[in-house]
Specification:
Length: 145
């Protein structure tokens, strides 16, 4: 099935059955470039959706790009954690769109104040499970009973 609006849905356009976690790629590139990269890495089939700015007509950090990813996964923004490597384009953009925003700080970008939005900062993906487990939206028990 050809990508529709820059969205590649897994299994020939069929939605996956719900599971513990859904995964998508949101890129400011094109679907052709991203599918080639993901296929070369053997990762293409690990994502329920691949969304790219060239086909979507909107790019990060604009909220519409992040909201399109949420829609492709069938989730509300507050149910989605977005992990990216750029503090402004990924971190601030995702937070302003209402997603849990996680910036992987590999020391290549200067630290920036996110202002009035919350951007969680991790040094690597190995820190992500603990961060998600600490948030009630992603499985942490509520302190309110």
């Amino acid at each position: 099935m050809a990508p529709r609006y820059g969205i590649r849905m897994a299994r020939n356009g069929e939605r996956f059955m719900p599971r513990a976690a859904l995964h998508a790629v949101l890129s400011n590139s094109s679907i052709t470039v991203q599918e080639h990269r993901l296929r070369a890495l053997g990762l293409l089939d690990r994502f329920e959706a691949v969304l790219c700015a060239a086909e979507l007509g909107v790019s990060k950090p604009r909220p519409g790009a992040f909201l399109a990813a949420c829609e492709a996964l069938g989730l509300a923004p507050h149910e989605v954690a977005y992990v990216g490597d750029h503090p402004e384009i990924d971190g601030r953009g995702a937070a302003e769109a209402g997603l849990l925003s996680v910036w992987i700080d590999r020391g290549t970008s200067p630290a920036r104040d996110a202002g009035d939005v919350v951007v969680h900062r991790i040094a690597g993906l190995s820190e992500l499970p603990a961060l998600l487990r600490s948030d009630t939206r992603f499985g942490a028990p509520s302190t309110f009973g």
